[in-house]
């Protein structure tokens, strides 16, 4: 979502980040904030590097990533297929549209307790929550993309002898791809956020759990580490998807 | 060069078909109207049309080599919940094999809609269109469209776009590629095979679109204001090139345009339409020698007379009071 | 006033969808026969108990108040910032990377850290909501302002409007449809952040009621509370959509399915 805010002026862009870190360092150095509450940035980042090489922390990351990818993958499959189907068939549209209208603005995280009751405290409930949250942006942008495919692209393919059912895969899907990938990008960042929150609310492993554990023992440094890790993961995954996107959409203008 | 693909839809594109894009069906109601179009084939004896003349009986001359027949086609679009728009009113037209026929008219006269009906993209509210005696119900590779908006697949390269039709027809990849490369060369785009449409200018895009359609050997070319989005210079060049290509195999061409010069320059026959409701008001045979050379033709008094007469007829119908 | 059948169907469809979803729930719970999965009827019956209970109601209202303040402040700050970013390359270049870095940070996850600094009071919770709402509003205002047609601003300048006047009288209204899209996302986000942060902090509020009931095995209450929160989301979105439609009547009809996420 923020991908188009790419820095045009790098120096100007780095300035506020440097400022924030300097302010952070300043607050600690000049004694405005005790290091217990606000550990100095250098300390936090060295702790981060230190943690990244330990096996336990890597296991936390792995647990988080498994849930994230499982949920995201389910959301992509469901979102793209339902979105295309709703755009292609007026009957499906009539059913899907009101349900989406009701479910999309519903705070999915409120369903989490119910999911815990139904699916237990393991992977299932968290994966489902991630999928439920990432589903709607993907579904909506797929639907939007598929229903705004230029009519004449479809006509051109039909005239060339493409059967009706093949139109969906040969024209609608590729033509809706920019929109679908925008949805996926939003969905991916949401997945990152949601999996972390779900782990914070209740879990025995994962990055979110690491944060909560640190908070219970008032280890400020260890609270920052998982938070920065998940944000970095978000940025990296976002960047990877961006690379996939620019490859897949190399033919599209403004992609 | 950047060309805007969006927002340049033709003016007579049907309204209210958003919900049903994929099936191409249109939610339209039939409103019967007792008005008929007359088909006059008296060449240069151009008479100002009056409503009374529209009521004259249809002169049905059936040429032996008719490829497309349009019989009493009417088209009604629902523009809003209560209002219907009669886009085409009782159109009958016969197109001979190998003829270059232009449909000429002001925007909103339903000329594109008529083309879409022949293409099988839009079903007429009443009446029917036939190709070689078979009713047209769906698009098919015997009728190849070329749109003003180019409608190239942005995710395919030039070669990929041109190869699409042959591949769809089951031609083997190697063969389809060879044919497509030859076609790309013919439309003057050799060297651009691996470019994406976005990297081409408007004129080049339209050349690709033409090649893509020619690639599956349609019997009839349906051209929907193909040069309408191009600048004057490019437009002239593409007109010349289109004529050159047409001279080779003399495909039947149905060409929609609102430019009088273009229609006269290209066609054997110009079908003049009037709007609200869309009707045929005159069919004019263009009796100019071929092959036509633009620089000679522009100086030809006969060409000039066709243009001036047709323009005058449009003016007169405007003065006669535009129908509501 | 009579409504045309088409309008009536459109209005009724979401209600039918709600009824349908509750029916599916009812059937599923009857089929599963799981103690921890009450039927829809049981859950709906438990709603009056929650809303009738003074403490629960105070909790929910306090949550809503924090949400309103957080949302309001975020909108007031974010719209001007977004508009400025959209019209000035330098300002955009200054803030963009910072926002990009903040973007993937789960805002509600900042709760424990902010609690460490500011305690568990209203300020912490409101601040988290503020952070959650700001980004989409800034982003959409930015996109909206960037897309304002240059010629329109030239016309304004030719009429003698100063840069500041142009921002308020041309850019703001022109970008309004996009801004309101951002606000709509922000509103749903405010609710989500509110619930999530209360679930994490477990001190008070609607999210806390949910997990308290879960811990005490009052499964009816859990599901009733989910219905209440869901209804809040749907109602807030519907109300906002009304307001939005009224404010930007002049603009192109917008894509009418809401986009929301946490």
Automatic annotation (TrEMBL), chain A:
Location of the ABC transmembrane type-1 domain: 61-241
Keyword entries, A-Z: Cell membrane, Membrane, Transmembrane, Transmembrane helix, Transport
Membrane topology: Multi-pass membrane protein
Transmembrane regions: 12-37, 65-87, 99-121, 127-146, 167-198, 218-241
Superkingdom in the source lineage: Bacteria
InterPro entries: MetI-like, MetI-like_sf
Coiled-coil region: none
Keyword Transmembrane: yes
Subcellular locations according to the entry: Cell membrane
GO biological-process terms attached to the record: transmembrane transport
GO cellular component: plasma membrane
Family named by the database record: Belongs to the binding-protein-dependent transport system permease family.
Protein's name in the database: ABC transporter permease
